[in-house]
Amino acid sequence: MATVFLGTIVHTKSFSEFESFENGFLAVDDNGKIIGVGHDYQPWLSSNSVQAKDLTEIRLSEHQFLMPGFVDCHIHAPQFAQVGLGLDMPLLDWLNTYTFPLEAKFSDQQYAQEVYKSVVEATLRCGTTLASYFATNHLESTLTLAREAVRQGQRALVGKVCSDCNSPDFYVETAEESASATLEFVEEMRNLESTLVLPTITPRFALSCSKGLLKDLGDIAKRFDLHIQSHISENLAEIAVVEGIFKTSYAGAYDEAGLLTNKTVMAHGVHLEDDEIALLKTRGCSVAHCPASNTMLSSGLCDVKRLVNAGVTVGLGTDVSGGNSVSIQDALLRALDVSKHLDFFKKQNIRGTGEAKTQDPSYVQLKYKQALYMATLGGAKALSLDHLTGNFALGKEFDALLVDVSVIEHPVRRLNVDELVEKFIYTGSDRNILEVFVAGKRVKKECQPE
Ligand code: GUN
Ligand code: ZN
């Protein structure tokens, strides 16, 4: 039976286009596809083959609205086991001290099953309808993560992590093992026959992969037309080592291996140089902006407006557990914070007591509707899945959140559409997410029509 939601509907159409329908409608067919959206329900109904009696109507309250589901472009599923812990070190020390020992434990299938069940539950609860997951080096437990996403009905890209050098003895593969396990993973994923969960090629980062392994992974991605994810230019110490090994820029190291494609998403990009940004743009690669992690691991302030202005698509990532929260709603707010901090940094000493100079008086802060785009359609585009999800365009799958801003605190007056969205973003509580839908199916609580 098809469903129609009646009430406030919001989504974005591009970085600078936000669209809303107050007293609007959104109709979903029984395959979970969007068949109607707009201001005027009755005219749509009359001109459509769908009969009113064949539609279940869900009427939203004045404090509720429907928006596209959140997209997490970068999250390490095993690191959910240490989320909120060990955030007192920069990247390379943090990896060696906490993260590699943790990930090595995922050779244990029972442990993997437990953590992966929890991380998918937690991200769904926060409204993540699409996540791009890093698992670990282990083939078996990576498949466990993929099966768990399928079981819980989350849309996901899942990657077996690949690392064959500059890693501890207890957590490293040979290049041959890594490439052949990746091939096996891709094959097993095909056997899953899921339309929601797909494999993604996942070199951990250039520092922990030999040139040969990167090239093999680039070849596999090309042969099967696969998605690719990795890290780039996150931390200055890391960049110095990569450039020393590869004798080229960080982006150049990936490009030489054929890993920069229009299905590639690179996390961080805090310290990318202009020519690297131009190369990403030319190759059609995207960046996952991970504001929480960039702060927690002291990596730096990423200027996403610089990336966007250069024509690079940017989505958001939680980067759990470098990031301390599984919520993209939190990442959205943190992205706005970082942009404000950059603005202060670039301008605030104009009137200071020191030398009167500014780095960039023309800097324009990220707007909340632009950050909402990055959290939804921008993320879907960054993962090359925007033909399926990310907004409410006709024919896309219904991946959505039903938000109610009165859950935490009843607004003292009626809010207009923009205010509903602002309230949701700036009060920042996922308790306001009442329902989560993926491909038309409820994956959170039962909906309670009024
Ligand atoms: N670079 C390589 N591995 C990682 C990781 O697990 N987290 C982050 N933030 N950066 C990385
Ligand atoms: Zn990461």
From TrEMBL:
GO terms for cellular component: cytosol. Belongs to the metallo-dependent hydrolases superfamily. ATZ/TRZ family. Its EC number is 3.5.4.3. Pfam families: Amidohydro_1. Pathway: Purine metabolism; guanine degradation; xanthine from guanine: step 1/1. It catalyses: guanine + H2O + H(+) = xanthine + NH4(+). GO terms for biological process: guanine catabolic process. Keywords: Hydrolase, Metal-binding, Zinc. The keyword Cell division does not apply. Binds 1 zinc ion per subunit. This is Guanine deaminase. GO terms for molecular function: guanine deaminase activity; zinc ion binding. Residues 65-443 form the Amidohydrolase-related domain. InterPro entries: Amidohydro-rel (IPR006680), Guanine_deaminase (IPR014311), Metal-dep_hydrolase_composite (IPR011059), Metal_Hydrolase (IPR032466), Metallo-dep_hydrolases (IPR051607).
